[in-house]
Every structure is written in C-alpha cells, then in structure tokens.
C-alpha cells in the first residue's frame, strides 16, 4: 500500500510542503517518485514520518532528529524508546487531569481543594535530573514529601531556602575565607537543610554518598546558570562551592 504526498499530508495533519522540506533536508524521502512526478510513500516511510512527528512533539529540532535517525542501528529500538517517552508523557497528563478534576469537583462542592493534589503532574520538570543524580527512589520520596506539605509549610520551606541563600551572599560579599568559621557554619546549615529532604544521601545517613552529593552540588552552583545567579554572581557561587567542598572534606 502506498500513499500520495497529499494523502499522507492529510492523514498526518501536516502540509505537503512540510513533507517536501523533510525530503530536502534528508529526513524523509518518498519511497518512489512516479513517472508523472508524484511522490509515493510506503509503510516504511510512514513509520519514519511517525517517528519524526513524535520527536517534533517532544520539542526536538530537525537537526537533532536527523542525528537520532542517522545514529540508529535498529528502528525497533528507536520505536521502543518513543513508546517509553509517550507512556511517561501520558502518565504526566493523566496526573494533571486528575489534579484539575479534583480542583473542579472541590470548588463545585464548596470545599477547599487539597494543595498537594492540585499541583500533581505540574512539577515534574526536574524529575529526570533528580533520578539521574540520586535515583528513582530519591525522586519519589522527595516528591511525596513536598506534596505532603500544606501551602503554609511549603512557603516556610521556601523562605528558609531564601534565607540560607541570603546568608551565603552576605558572607561572600564580606570577603571572608570559605574555610572560616562563619563560612563553615553556613556549610553545616546547608547540609542540615539538605538532610530534611527524604531520599537524599544526607537524609539517609549515607556518609560517602553525602560527601559526594555536597561536593557535586557545590560544583553545580558554579557550572549551572540556574544556580550561579541565585548566589548573586559567579564569585558568590564559587564561594559557596569552596565552602561546601571544604566542609565535605574535613567535617562530614
């Protein structure tokens, strides 16, 4: 079975112009071109288009998609990876649907929605990062812990974090040494703060992994722009890193 370019475009919900563009950039060539110049696409081409559209929906650009397709040895492995990604996205959307339905039903009944349920499915953007660093268990425990808090408790936690950051910034601006007693006291406070989060090595009492985590976080504060600015500037982030790493080496 084959589809013309117009038929394929209509069924895929895209334009024939897009299909021609995919051909020009080497992503998807027609299976054959008829004597009349018409482009035809067989099952293999449609399967490839399906994968291209999936990756586009996941936010990938055409050059990145081309690299994925070029590097693949087995198309079935690629399809399995896409199924896993789609299942994860489905689970996230289902959590969002449940949370919005909970809010709607509570409001219609004149009741107050539960904060932890209202935000389920909307805060998973750090999941992959947390899982890669500390594992699935750490993510699950920390996520459950956070959503088990009331709104006031969440606000109090965030305020404590902001107060800690402000203390770090003030110490860095004071020009003290990262190994000074004031800096090391802040490092101890930072580690105690981390130990309140279930699933982290500090919360589990795992000394070796805790040392590794504290050193790694210190490095991340300098290397990751999301955190560098939080400590005012690169010098402030470097001060926090050096203090945490000195604390991990000598006091943990």
From TrEMBL:
Protein keywords: Coiled coil, DNA-binding
Presence of the UniProt keyword DNA-binding in the record: yes
Listed SUPFAM superfamilies: Antibiotic binding domain of TipA-like multidrug resistance regulators, Putative DNA-binding domain
Keyword Amino-acid biosynthesis attached: no
Gene3D superfamilies reported in the protein's UniProt record: 1.10.1660.10, Antibiotic binding domain of TipA-like multidrug resistance regulators
Domain HTH merR-type: 1-71
GO molecular function: DNA binding; DNA-binding transcription factor activity
Coiled-coil intervals, chain numbering: 69-110
InterPro entries cross-referenced by the UniProt entry: DNA-bd_dom_put_sf, MerR-type_HTH_dom, MerR_fam, TipA-like_antibiotic-bd, TipAS_dom
Cited CDD domains: HTH_TipAL-Mta
PROSITE patterns per record: HTH_MERR_2
Domain of life: Bacteria
Alphabetized PANTHER family for the sequence: MERR FAMILY REGULATORY PROTEIN, REDOX-CYCLING DRUG-SENSING TRANSCRIPTIONAL ACTIVATOR SOXR
Stated name of the protein: MerR family transcriptional regulator
């Amino acid at each position: 079975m084959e589809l013309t370019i117009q038929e394929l475009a209509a069924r895929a919900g895209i334009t024939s112009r897009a299909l021609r563009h995919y051909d020009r950039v080497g992503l998807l060539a027609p299976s054959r071109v008829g004597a009349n110049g018409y482009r035809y696409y067989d099952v293999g081409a449609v399967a490839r288009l399906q994968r291209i559209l999936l990756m586009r929906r996941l936010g990938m650009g055409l050059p990145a998609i081309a690299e994925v397709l070029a590097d693949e040895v087995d198309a079935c492995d690629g399809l399995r990876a896409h199924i896993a990604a789609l299942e994860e996205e489905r689970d996230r959307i289902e959590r969002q649907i449940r949370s919005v339905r909970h809010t709607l039903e509570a409001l219609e009944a004149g009741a107050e929605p539960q904060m932890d349920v209202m935000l389920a499915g909307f805060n998973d953007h750090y999941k992959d990062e947390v899982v890669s660093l500390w594992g699935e268990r750490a993510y699950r425990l920390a996520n459950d812990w956070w959503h088990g808090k009331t709104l006031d408790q969440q606000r109090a936690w965030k305020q404590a974090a902001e107060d800690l950051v402000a203390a770090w910034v003030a110490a860095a601006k004071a020009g003290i040494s990262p190994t000074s007693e004031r800096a090391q006291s802040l490092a101890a406070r930072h580690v105690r703060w981390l130990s309140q989060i279930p699933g982290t090595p500090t919360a589990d009492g795992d000394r070796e992994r805790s040392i590794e985590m504290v050193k790694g976080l210190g490095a991340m504060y300098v290397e990751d722009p999301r955190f560098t600015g939080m400590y005012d500037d690169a010098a402030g982030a470097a001060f926090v890193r050096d203090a945490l790493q000195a604390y991990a080496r000598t006091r943990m």
